[in-house]
């Protein structure tokens, strides 16, 4: 399970102005699909249809052969984790933020999620109520730390599908390396991954879709795309 199919998907935020046109692709269970392309190409829009923030204007998005519109939101939520640059974190402790994903998670599971998302530093802080807004040493969590906390929270749910929209991210290089390592771990575990970002995960993705002007203009593996140019 974890098979995604976009079938001739069109989407317009404003009638007559299409942000996506004729989008068709599949992600088989455990595959990684990377979306690349210039700003405004439609990457975030494409990804948000999978989380059902919007429904297509034309065509369909399917999960395991079923139209997303026919799947209960509750069920969708248990299968799909959606992490964006703006993923909400509560002004609460790290443990409370993690437990939001799974209130029954044990201390060991919280620690494991932190390890997998490369936020080892947070493990020690879990019982002590390290705050998401103001850290132990009085500093705010960085953008990268917040993002890794959002990834850790997503991992706690063991989703079949993780969609990650980092189109606008400006991570420092250390955070970037950690997020990269966390994603590689998910790839090894064969979580279906759909990512819009600029990290080198793109290099090892099973499929790369190049978007421009709301259309897929190129597709293939990294080496296939290099051979084209
Ligand atoms: P990317 O993620 O590749 O930068 P987006 O999906 O954000 O691209 O944007 C695709 C197109 O849709 C752009 O023309 C953008 O201006 C437009 N767009 C994005 N979000 C909205 C919105 N909420 N309302 C109207 N237009 C939008
Ligand atoms: P998690 O963040 O661990 O995936 P939940 O799925 O329980 O936890 O919480 C909502 C998460 O899903 C947030 O990260 C949010 O960005 C994302 N999300 C999924 N669907 C929606 C939606 N329809 N509107 C806003 N956010 C959504």
UniProtKB/TrEMBL annotation:
Origin superkingdom: Bacteria
Start and end residues of each ABC transporter domain: 4-229
Protein known as: ABC transporter ATP-binding protein
Compartment list: Cell membrane
């Amino acid at each position: 399970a974890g098979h995604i199919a976009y079938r001739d998907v069109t989407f317009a935020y404003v009638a007559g102005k299409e942000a996506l046109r004729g989008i068709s692709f599949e992600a088989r269970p455990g595959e990684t699909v990377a979306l690349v392309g210039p700003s405004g190409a439609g990457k975030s829009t494409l990804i948000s249809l999978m989380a059902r923030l919007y429904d297509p204007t034309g065509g369909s998005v399917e999960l395991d052969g079923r139209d997303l519109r026919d799947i209960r939101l509750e069920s969708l939520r248990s299968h799909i984790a959606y992490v964006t640059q703006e993923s909400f974190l509560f002004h609460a402790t790290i443990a409370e933020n993690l437990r939001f994903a799974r209130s029954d998670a044990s201390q060991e599971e919280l620690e494991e999620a932190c390890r997998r998302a490369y936020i080892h530093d947070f493990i020690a802080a879990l019982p002590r109520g390290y705050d998401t807004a103001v850290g132990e040493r009085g500093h705010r969590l960085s953008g990268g730390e917040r993002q890794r906390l959002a990834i850790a929270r997503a991992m706690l749910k063991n989703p079949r599908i993780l969609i990650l929209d980092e189109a606008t991210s400006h991570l420092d290089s250390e955070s970037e390396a950690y997020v990269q390592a966390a994603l590689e771990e998910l790839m090894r575990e064969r979580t279906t991954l759909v990512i819009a970002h600029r990290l080198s995960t793109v290099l090892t993705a099973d499929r790369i879709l190049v978007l421009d002007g709301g259309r897929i203009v190129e597709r293939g593996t990294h080496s296939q795309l290099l051979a084209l140019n």
